[in-house]
């Protein structure tokens, strides 16, 4: 639970990132920056810095932000295609728009 798995094509192996306290239900990659966000049953959205992995193939990712605002499990996340905003949807029947900066 709480693990995000990704494939490193140069090293030809799977890596894992831990951070959530519940199952991860959604992941979205930022189209304009080296970041991604994840949403989980632990009621949080987390924003991750992917830069270290891309430049240095470091298996450790830096979590940049943990965002709380939902009252129920987060079921989906999605970055805006033009800027550093993303939205999250939850079982609490809300959709929230977040400004990354």
Automatic annotation (TrEMBL):
One of its GO terms (biological process) is mRNA 3'-end processing. Keywords: WD repeat. WD repeats lie at residues 17-51, 67-101. This is Uncharacterized protein. It comes from Mucochytrium quahogii. Gene3D superfamilies: YVTN repeat-like/Quinoprotein amine dehydrogenase (2.130.10.10). GO terms for cellular component: mRNA cleavage and polyadenylation specificity factor complex. It holds the Pfam family WD40. The keyword Transmembrane helix does not apply. InterPro entries: Pfs2-like (IPR045245), WD40/YVTN_repeat-like_dom_sf (IPR015943), WD40_repeat_dom_sf (IPR036322), WD40_rpt (IPR001680).
């Amino acid at each position: 639970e709480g693990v995000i798995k990704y494939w490193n094509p140069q090293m030809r192996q799977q890596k894992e990132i831990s951070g959530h306290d519940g199952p991860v239900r959604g992941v979205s990659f930022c189209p304009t920056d080296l970041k991604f966000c994840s949403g989980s049953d632990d009621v949080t959205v987390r924003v991750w810095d992917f830069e270290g992995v891309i430049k240095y193939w470091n298996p450790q990712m830096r979590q940049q932000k943990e965002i709380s605002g939902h009252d129920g499990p987060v079921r989906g996340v999605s970055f805006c295609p033009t800027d550093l905003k993303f939205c999250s949807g939850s079982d609490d029947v809300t959709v929230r728009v977040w400004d990354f900066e």
